[in-house]
From TrEMBL:
Pfam short name (any one): CDP-OH_P_transf
GO cellular component: membrane
GO biological process: phospholipid biosynthetic process
Protein topology in the membrane: Multi-pass membrane protein
Subcellular location: Membrane
GO MF annotation, one: phosphotransferase activity, for other substituted phosphate groups
Originating organism: Desulfurella acetivorans
Lineage: Bacteria, Pseudomonadati, Campylobacterota, Desulfurellia, Desulfurellales
This protein's name: CDP-diacylglycerol--serine O-phosphatidyltransferase
Keyword Membrane listed: yes
Family annotation (InterPro entries): CDP-alcohol_PTase-I (IPR050324), CDP-OH_P_trans (IPR000462), CDP-OH_PTrfase_TM_dom (IPR043130), CDP_ALCOHOL_P_TRANSF_CS (IPR048254)
Length: 94
């Protein structure tokens, strides 16, 4: 039973890494380190691809995982890129 719990959490760890990459990208954008922010978004793509594959391989798909992945994608591929573009291109406009 303990191994099943460990497998259940594994895809969610990758989803969490995806979300943290997005949050850290926002922080780096705010600090003006745009290259690091962009690379963190690339890293988020990698984590996003891996979490679904791992969930299917370990047969640990869940409704929570689907919703958590959607929230993570919103942060990493919605908010973080928008904030990066704003701070890079538009912040000088006022």
């Amino acid at each position: 039973m303990k191994q099943k719990n460990a497998l259940y959490i594994l895809p969610n760890l990758f989803t969490t890494a995806n979300m943290l990459s997005g949050f850290y990208s926002i922080i780096e954008s705010y600090q003006g380190d745009y290259l690091s922010a962009a690379w963190l978004l690339v890293l988020a793509v990698l984590f996003d691809n891996l979490d679904g594959k791992i969930a299917r391989l370990t047969h640990c798909e869940s409704r929570f995982g689907v919703e958590y992945d959607s929230l993570s994608d919103l942060v990493s591929f919605g908010v973080a890129p928008a904030f990066l573009m704003y701070t890079f291109a538009l912040s000088d406009m006022g």
